[in-house]
Structure formats: C-alpha cells, structure tokens
Amino acid sequence: MGRDNPGVVIIGAGMTGILLAIKLQEAGITDITVLEKKESIGGTWRENTYPGVACDVPSHAYTYSFAPNPDWSSHFPAGAEIHQYFKDIIERFDVAKFIRYNEPVTACAYDDATRRWTVTTERGDYEADLLFSATGILHQPKIPGFPGRDTFTGHCFHTARWDHSVALAGKRIGIIGTGSTACQVIPELVAMPGTDVTVFQRTPQWTAYMEDRPFADWEKARFARQPWRMQLIRWLSSFVYSRGTAALAGDGVFDRLTHRLMAWNARKLLRDAVTDPALREKLTPDYQFGCKRVVITSRFYDAIQQPNAHLVTEGIERFEPSGIRTQDGTLHELDIVVLATGFDPTAFMRPMAFRGSGGLSIEQAWEKKITAYRSMFLPGFPNFFLMLGPNSPIGNQSVIEISETQTRFALQLVDEWRAGRLDRIECTPAAVARWAAMIREKVQHTVWASGCDSWYLDADGDALTWPFTWNKWVAMMAAPDFSDFVARDAGD
Ligand code: NAP
User: Fold this and answer.
1) How far does residue 259's CA lie from ligand 1's centre (Å)?
2) Rounded to the nearest whole angstrom, what is the distance from the C-alpha of residue 205 to the centroid of ligand 1?
C-alpha cells in the first residue's frame, strides 16, 4: 500500500473506467479494483441494445487515442461492434484482472481518521486511497410519469432497457421522443415487416446529415499499414465537432457565421427531405439550431415519411389499457410502447449513499447546485475523482477525448500526491464557487440558453454542458492550478 502504490477503486467498467485502469496501471499502480455492477463491461454499449444503436461520432474518433482500430466496419458502426472493441481492449491492455463483476456499489464513505474510502457493494467492503467514479453521464433512464402507464396491457420499455423477448414484426408500435436515440430506432422499426409506427413528438429537433458507408477490406488493410490515415480522420472529426461547438458557444464573427451556415443547412436538409408541407411544418423546430443537441441522422426524415409511420404532435394525455390517448381525444391503439425519453443527466453516482469528510453527503454538497470544480472535484470529498461530471459534455465531441483529458489531469494530481507534495487531492470551496460562477455567466451568452428545454441546462438554466469551446476545455484541463487545491505542500 502507501502512496507509491495506493489502493484504487474505480466504479464502473465502461469506457472511462477501462481507460483509468489502463492509465493507472501504466503509472505503476497495481492495486486497482474496478467494480462493475453488471455481468459484463461496456457501460452505455452494454446497456443500449435497441435496434439501430450506433455512435454518431466517427469510429476512428471514437477510439482511445492509444488504441486505434483499423478493423472498424464503417464510420458509424453498430453498438455491438463498439462493445466488442472495449472487450478486446481489456484483454489487450491486461486490465481484465482488475474487474469484479456483478458488484453494484451501494455506498462510499470517507474516513477522516484513516484517510481512506470504504466502498460498499452487495458483496462486501473495499478500501481505497483514491476513488474514481466512472459511472457515465447518461446512464439512469428518464421514465416520465405518464398517467395510467401501469394500465397499458401491451409491452412498454425504455430504449436503454430494450426487451428483446418482444417480437416487433407485424406490431403497432408507439415511440415517445424524437431525440438522438429515437432517430436511430425509428428507421429500424419502420423497416420491419408489417409494423405500424406512431411517433409521439413533443418538440421537433434540428438534424445534421452524416451518411455511413462500410470500409472495404483493402481500406482496413491500408489503415493497418498507414495508421496516420486513422489519425487524420480522428483529427478531422475532432476539428469539425470543435468548430460546431465554437459556433454554439463562441461570440466571434466567424462563430456566428458558422452557426448561420449550420442553421441554413439544417433548414435546407428538412426542406429537401420532407415533401409534404404539413409534415415539414410539424418537424420544424421553433428554436435556434443547436439549442438542443443536434440529432445526427441520415435516415429519420425518410423513415417518418413511410406509409407505415405517423407523426403525432398532440400532447400525451394518458396511457390506457389499449394504447395512448392524446390531448385531442384520439386513442392510438398500440401493442408496444418504446420510451425514447432520454436520461437523467444529473444522477452521477446516485443512487449510491455517498459521504465525504465529516459525513458530508452528496445530497448536502449538491443541495443548492450540482457542480464540480473542473467538472471533477468537490470540496469535502478528498481523493475522489468524478469522471465525466457536470459541464463535461461538450457539444457532439467524442466523449473518449473528454475522458482522456480528464484522466491526464487526474494523473498529474495523483503524481503530486504520490510524491508527497499534496496532502490530499481536494479542491477549495472558493475554487468550485469561482468555477460555478464562470459557467453560469458564460452559458447566458450561448445558443444553449437561447430558449429551449434540453438536458444541457438544469432547472435553473445553469449549464450541465461545457459552455465554452473545445480549445478552452483542452487548455483548462492541460495542467492543474495547485492553488485551487487545499493543503498544498502540507505533506512536505
Ligand atoms: P433526449 O435527447 O433527452 O430525447 C428525449 C426525447 O424524449 C425528446 O424528444 C423529449 O422531448 C422526449 N420526451 C421526454 N420526456 C417526455 C414526455 N414526458 N413527453 C413527451 N416526450 C418526452 O434523449 P436521447 O435521445 O436518449 O439522447 C440523449 C443523449 O444521448 C443525446 O443527446 C446524446 O448525447 C446521447 N446519444 C448519443 C448517441 C450517439 O450516437 N452518440 C445516440 C443516442 C443518444 P422534448 O425534446 O420535448 O424534451
């Protein structure tokens, strides 16, 4: 044990947990335990198995920077292929040995006397000097409390809890929501034999078009021979998405022009793709492009115009035994209802009982506002790292890039702590207050605060997303400012 080889617990064996295990092992730490609540790794790629699930970040950008994959089948491969990438990674980087499966964490508590964390699972306790929460951003499904939902006699499930025992062919399927997930599912449901698909849309979405195509075998061989080609796609993707973020967050002339161009393009896409003016009207958002996360799809507009697809924009009044009744009094009779209603973006480690120094609970710490310094650190929670915390989603940027910047940042602090130059890794209350004020001030001047409801903002209109550019994030996460951490030099 000791600071040279501390005990580390990582909660969650998804993309971020695996990354941390690899990088901590590379840093010479061997006492690592990754607690995974389910029977397999993969986080979002294990949970989301709905028809059409894929990543809308190009595959060569949605890989660890240190583990390119020349064998991706296409630019936007299916979720199962991405899941397999992570399964291969844990073997290739020899971190499978750290993972303990079927161990949902129920509680974490910091002991001020021993200066260690006790992490409790249904099977027992683990001790840790350093604790990382890698539970993902969008993990806990949001299930709206529709009146009468329990009375529905058909099948009803959330997209992240897809019930594969339910046959879809020939069924009357309702789907609630038109976000990124719904727009991946709907084309698949519409294409199934004999289905009749009713889409319940509360708010239309702006979309951007990205066509997929399979890589030929010769292209894969060329990626393997010339890895710079994969790097080029990665760089281009990051550049394009970062320009998109700048257009939504920035206030320079070029940013505003880019935003106009993107908005014009989205309108043109809709105009060209949807021929019926009444349907087009229903699909046209009344808020600025990019206010909600832009849906990247090449198939949604085509699917919604198929004869077996119906767009319903009247609000949902209630569920009834045979279907959904909308506010205009119509009963939509259904066999299956799919809830593509998104996720709670503030659940983070909850529902765990989470207590820091002096028994401070996470509910107390976040009583007024869910925030974390540099999206990772909370006063009163020493040696705890919240990966992909508040303000870490950055536009449509690859979440792997975001996790990698956070991991590098965290490791710099761990190095200082191991060398005895930091007594403990804990930010000051002043640092988190300054951070929250900076976020609050900036988001007001972005497209995200221009008048729409989205998971990018909390109930008070404060940002859950990163309201600056990608470049600012990279600069911010390049190196810690040690004056923002308590007890600097106390260990000397
Ligand atoms: P979402 O973007 O939050 O969309 C949820 C949808 O459900 C919205 O259309 C919403 O309508 C609707 N909805 C929610 N509650 C409702 C209610 N009570 N009544 C009627 N409609 C309701 O969720 P998501 O589509 O699952 O996507 C979440 C995020 O996951 C995305 O923004 C993205 O970051 C990520 N994602 C990424 C990919 C990828 O390929 N990388 C794929 C899927 C998802 P309103 O708009 O009116 O609220």
Assistant:
1) 22
2) 10
Tell me the Ramachandran region of residue 12: left when phi exceeds 0, alpha when psi lies from -120 to 50, beta otherwise.
left
Residues paired with 10 in a beta bridge: 34, 132
Alpha-carbon gap, residue 160 to 351, rounded angstroms: 18
Note whether 232 and 292 are same-domain residues.
yes
CATH number of the domain to which 45 belongs: 3.50.50.60
Instruction: Tell whether ligand 1 has an atom less than 6 A from the beta carbon of residue 295.
Output: no
Report CA(175)–ligand 1 centroid distance (Å): 12
395 within ligand 1 shell (Cβ under 6 A) = no
Of the three residues 312, 339, 366, the one that is the final residue of a domain is: 339
Backbone CA torsion sign across 145, 350, 50, 157: negative
Question: For the segment 311-325, what is each residue's pLDDT rounded down to a tens digit?
Answer: 999 999 999 999 999
Whether 328 and 359 map to the same domain: the answer is no
Give the pLDDT confidence score for residue 492 in this predicted structure: 35
Residues 335 and 349 reside in one and the same domain? no
Atom of ligand 1 nearest to the CA of 396: 34
Q: What is the pLDDT of residues 32-66, one digit of tens each?
A: 999 999 999 999 999 999 999 999 899 999 999 99
Residue 450 maps to a domain: yes
162 and 200 housed in the same domain: yes
Verify whether ligand 1 is closer than 6 Å to residue 177 (CB atom). Answer: yes
| Ligand 1 centroid, distance to 366 Cα (angstroms) | 25
Is 47's C-beta closer than 6 angstroms to any atom of ligand 1?
no
User: Which pLDDT value is given to residue 80?
Assistant: 97
Q: Relative to the CA of 146, which ligand 1 atom is closest? A: 18
| Angle CA 272–314–308, to nearest 5 | 55
327 lines ligand 1 (CB under 6 A): no
Separation of alpha carbons 418 and 29, rounded Å: 11
> Domain check: are 193 and 260 in the same one?
yes
Are 200 and 242 contained in the same domain? yes
- Going by C-alpha positions, the residue among 46, 44, 95 that lies closest to residue 67 is 95
Residue 61: the pLDDT is 96
Same domain, 88 and 114: yes
Residue 492 lies in a domain: no
Residues 6+ apart with CB under 8 A from 465: 391, 393, 394, 395, 448, 456, 457
- Are residues 282 and 165 part of one domain? yes
pLDDT digits (tens, 9 = 90+) for 379-432: 999 999 999 999 999 988 999 999 999 999 999 999 999 999 999 999 999 999
Q: Quote the number of domains for the chain.
A: 2
Q: In terms of residue numbers, what domain contains 352? A: 8-140+344-484
53 lines ligand 1 (CB under 6 A): no
Q: Whose CA is nearest to atom 32 of ligand 1?
A: 293
